[in-house]
Every structure is written in structure tokens, then in C-alpha cells.
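**Backbone geometry record:**
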Amino acid sequence: MGDPVRTATDERRCEDVTLGFHNTGGSAVRSGTVTFGTHVIGALGVDWATVESTEELPAPIGAGAREEKTWTVCVDAWRVPLGMRIETRDVSVRWR
């Protein structure tokens, strides 16, 4: 998995997160999940909360293949009042 690339959206409670995957194994990855840890950041830079969300991998990913996918990651509007923003900093993958 590559580093996440974050892109702002029109809503302060959402951002697009793009991940690249490279299957270096000898067989296809048939399924799995991606877990995003999205931080709610206050106006002064204080990290107020981390909200997790989970999405399905873009599977199958063949042996030696590369895939890229973009997800729109959002948190509830009430968690991001005016003056606050989000940053999806933590990403983990569970291959199945």
C-alpha cells in the first residue's frame, strides 16, 4: 500500500483519499478492507477526535498487479463545526 493522497472536497467534513496498492505476492488478493482514521482538527490545530470508517478493497488484485482507488471519506457534520477541519492520517489494510 502506498501513502494516502488527500484532496479537499466542497464540504469541510469530507475529503477524497486515494491509495495505491501493489500485490507483491504470488496469488491474487480476493478481498479485504481499508480502515481510515480521520482526525477532527480545531482552529488552533488541536486534534479533538479520531473517527474510523471502513471500506472494501478494490479486489481482486492479481499477483504482481497495481491498483489505485479513491474514496470520499466523511464524518458526521456535527463533529466538524465551523472553523474545524478533517485530516485522514491513519490508514490500515486487512487482506483476506
